[in-house]
Every structure is written in C-alpha cells, then in structure tokens.
Amino acid sequence: MGTTARRAQPVSWIVLGLLALYALGPLLVFAFNSLKSAREIDSNPLGLPQSWSWGNFAVAWEQAHMGGALLNSLVIAVATAAGVALIATMAAYAMTRLDLPGGGAWILWLLVSSSLPIQLFLVPLVSWWSTLGLYNQPIGLIIIYWAVYSPFATLLVRAFLIGMPKEYEEAARLDGAGELGVFARIVLPMIRPAVLTAALVSGLQAYNEFMLAVTFIQDRDFQPVALSLYSFQQGFTTDWSLVSAAGLLMALPVVVLFLTMQRTFIDGYVSRGIAV
Amino acid sequence: MTTETATTGASLAAAPVRREPRPALRGRPLGARRQRRLLAWLFVAPLLVVNLLVITGPGLASVFYSFTDWDGLSTPRFVGLANYAEMLRSGAVGSALLHNVLWTLFFLVVPMGMGLVGAFLLSRLRRFQAVFRVLYFIPYVLATVVSATVWRQILDPDGGIGAALATLGLPFLEDVNFLGNPSLALGSVAFVNTWQWWGFLLVIFLASMQSVDPALYEAVRLDGAGPVREFWHITLPMIRPTLVFLGLMTIIWSFLVFDYVYVLTQGGPAGSTDVLSTVLYREAFQNQRHGYASAVAMLLSAISAATVLGYLALRRRLRWDI
C-alpha cells in the first residue's frame, strides 16, 4: 500500500512473534500431551513427547464416546447452518424485495433479538420445551440455534441484498418468471457468498456452543461433542493425555475447516464485529 | 445502520427492458400485489415463528416470572417485588456483580490493548500479514470446552507451567493453584478467556485500520512523527467507531459471561469466580428457583440495555455518525 519506506522494525517482529507464540504455544503443548503416556505427562508436562502414543486417540475415542458425539455435533451443526441460511435468506428477501409491511421496525426487532442475552429467555424456555416435548431432543436444540443465530444472519444477508441491483430480477419478472422463480434462479445464486458466510458462522457456533447444549441435552446418546468432552474432563481421575486426545479430536475438524475456508470465516466474523 | 423499506414493484419502469413487457404484467393488477404481500409474509414466517417461540415469547414470560415464586413445574405464585428485594440484599449477587465489573475492566484493557497493538504492528507489515492473521485467529474458532481443556493442564498445579518451570530451575510458580486459589481464580479464568478472544479483536481492528487513508500517515510522517505518534494521532481517532463498538460489545459480553466460568471453576472456589450468569444458572437449575432466577435475568438485561442506551446517548451528544 504505502510508498514511503516503512522501516522494518525488529521490535514489531519480536512483538508479533511473541503474540504468535502466545496463540499457538498452548496448542502445541496440547497436541504434544495428546501423544504422551499418562506417566510421561507427570515427569514432562510441557515438552515434546518422548514416545508417541498414537493409541491415546483410540482409547479417548472409546472412553469419551467421541464417535457418537461427533456425529451428533455434525448433525446439529449442519442442520443449524442449513436452517439459519434458509430462514435468514427468505426473511431478508421478504424485507428487501417483497412488499413486507413494517419497514424499519423489522430491523429494530432483529437488532434487539440478536443482542438480547440468552439468559433472559433461558429459564422459561426450559419449561416451554419440556411442555412441547422438545427438551432433551436434538431437534429442540437445533430450533433454539435457528432462533438465536438467524437474526444476525438475516441482517447480514439483508445488507448484501440492499447492495445488489434489482435490474436482473425486474428483467426476469418481465420475462414472465414468477416470484419463486426469481428468488430461486436469480437472487439465490447472486447472494451465495453472504448466505455461505452466514451458514458457516452459525454452523461453527452451533458446533462449539456450550450453555444451551448443557441446559437442553441430558441424554448421553444425544450429547454433542462439546458436552462429552466436558464430562470426560470432569471425570475424577483426569488423565490429561486422554483428555487432550479427545479435545484434539473435537478441535481438528474446525481447525481444518477454518484453514481451508479462512477468508470466508474471517469476513463473516469481521462483519459481525462491525455494526451491520 | 440504514432502515430502507422494500420499494419494489412500483419502479418497474426504471428497469432495463430486454424484451417488450407483456401487456398483462405492465399494469400489475391488484391480485398480483396481494399475492406478493402474502408471499412476503410466508417468507418471513419461519424467522417470525422460531423467534417468537424461543426468544420473544420466553423473554416476555421471563418478565412475568420475575414477579413470581416458581419452581418451574407448579403454578407460579405472584410475589410482587420480593425477588428483586431479595436480589438487592443478596451477598451472592453483590459479589457476582463485582466480579462482572472486574471482568469488564480486565477485558476493556487487556484483550483490547493486545488486539489494538497487534493490529497496528500487523497493519504496518508488508508481508506475512495474512499468515499472522490466521495464526492469531485460530484460538477464536475453538470451542470454550477445548480451550478450557488446553489451559486446565497448563494451569495444573502438579503438572502444568509451574512444575515445568521448576524442572528448569525456576520454582517461583511451583504449586501455585491458579484455578483453585480464591484470590487467583477469577484472574486465571479471565486470562484463559483472553487467550481465545483477543485474536478476534485483532482481526476486526486490523480490518478497520486497513481502511484508513494512507495519505494521513504520510502527512504526519513528513512532520517527523514516529510510530507511537502515528498510532495516537491517526490510527486511534480514525478507527474510533470500531473501537467504541467493540468496547460496547465487550461491556455487554462481560456482564453475560458464563461458559468459561462454568467450565473452569463453576463459580468456585468459595464463590470467588461467581458471576451473575452462574448465580442465575444455579438458582434456576440447581435450586429450582425460576422466579428468582428470572429477576437476576432482568438485572442482566437491564445492564445490557443501559449500556446500549448510554452508548446511543453518548453518540448523540458527541454527534458521532456511526
């Protein structure tokens, strides 16, 4: 960008390097510990493993019920992402392109909904969900995630739609396309980046989420991986090598997904951090 | 924020026409308009239904329950302001509130400071900017439970950082029980949360700094300004909207913090890490006092609302335009 020489300051490199060490150092310790034997962790808590116990992963997989839990989380994350994307896209389309009465009131409602504390509605929601038979059901948790993550996603897609010219849709309408046809064939392909971002961010949030999951899921068979990792490390003889292995199994899919799609992720979070 | 309303339909004439409009559509009969409006409601219906069912409905119910004595199962009994009176007298709520205030101050200073300085240094790099950005962001995509797993072993008094330093001949942290010592626990939990959180702030600050006009820097550089003055006189004023917005969010989130405290210490030892959310959770789901917990929820919501309103008032007063 700049044309004047920016002095290559060793101090900035040192500070940035230290910050990188701070971000990644603990993760390295974590990865090393997942490969140590329980006995080695005691004598060598933070260093490289002397012998690599890959078997830890198999044991942790078994003991922490990782297989079922990861599958549950995958279902929850995908259903959340797809549902939020659909709900938000439809609502944003209605707000920007169809004659939805109400105008600005919708935006205010979305802003308020997306900034209300979960704690405000958590307590009555538990008894509502028991009454409706949604408590301790994965679908019950998924519906909650839809509601919690869709206001922000709607604002995101809406902002994108507002910036998009309407001429293509008008032209398609003049060609005789129906409203649904315009939505599916003209609008959806054009707003795909915003929808993808909204889906990714809400899917990741659902995968990582803890408070709602621990409140609404009791049954071990329905537990997402965040809960099984939590109960595994609360166990009273904590074997850190196995807990690390289980934690790494939970973290790896997210880190890999993030690294492959980091631009979409970061853009999504940046738009979250800057007022929509 | 903009608040446009939907204004399609009326502006058909302005659209570029690739083919002659069909006569039947040009007039857009009343039936078509009504159909469009019906479609609009159908499209917004899923959002409306899940929102009313999960957020708006139970949120309003919470207001009502806060005036009742209720165990979550039987019929709620109206008790007027008794829950609020009890809350004001409660030592547990008072100390939780204090912890939330301390937490807020910590998060306004430490992660914000790290994010700002890191983003400033990074914005001046010509190469490897994207690499550093990704590295710093990795902790943010991890779940609370995962970063708690990472840090519980590093902070472990027997096998963590204290023990590791001791084997290197630096025993000053030996046997320090970061999460088990009441005077260290809150700071330790905040430290763990900072590790996961600051990279998010950095990425946002960086995006904001990248939109600052480079010519402004050139100007002060001609005056002989060093990096520190550039930071104070150009960067900080130029990214003020982002700074204020993230400061506001930091305050709100700090009063709502739950996950890290619950996963790492459950509010202990001896209530030393209790925050309003953990008090609420315990009252509702361990003591079955849903009415009282709803009153605590009202306090939390009031704090969030007051923060937002205070911000809006400040913004109007100072004539900010974000």
Walkthrough of the structure:
The complex is a heterodimer of chains A (276) and B (322). Chain A is mainly α and 276 residues long. Chain A has 2 domains: 10-53, no CATH class; 63-273, Orthogonal Bundle (MetI-like fold), CATH 1.10.3720.10. Helix content of chain A is 75%, strand content 0%. In chain A, helix 4 (66-96) packs antiparallel against helix 10, helix 5 packs across helix 7 (138-162) and helix 12 packs antiparallel against helix 13. Chain B is mostly helical and 322 residues long. Chain B has one domain (91-318): MetI-like (MetI-like fold, Orthogonal Bundle), CATH 1.10.3720. Chain B is built from 14 helices and 2 strands. Chain B has a two-stranded antiparallel ribbon. In chain B, a hairpin with a 7-residue loop joins strand 1 and strand 2. The relative contact order of chain B is 0.11. The interface between A and B is large, with 109 and 119 residues.
Any low-confidence stretches of chain B, pLDDT <50, length ≥5? 1-27
Query: Which class of secondary structure composition applies to the elements of chain A?
Result: mainly alpha
Look up the CATH topology of chain B.
Answer: MetI-like fold
Largest sheet of chain A: none
Radius of gyration of chain A: 23 Å
Number of strands of chain B: 2
- First and last CA, distance of chain B: 8 Å
Strand fraction of chain A: under 5%
| Largest interface pair | A-B, 109 and 119 residues
CATH architecture heading of the largest domain in chain A: Orthogonal Bundle
Whole-number tally of structural domains of chain A? 2
- CATH classification class of the largest domain in chain A: Mainly Alpha
Name the CATH superfamily assignment of chain B: MetI-like
Give the quaternary arrangement of the chains: heterodimer
The general outline of chain A is globular
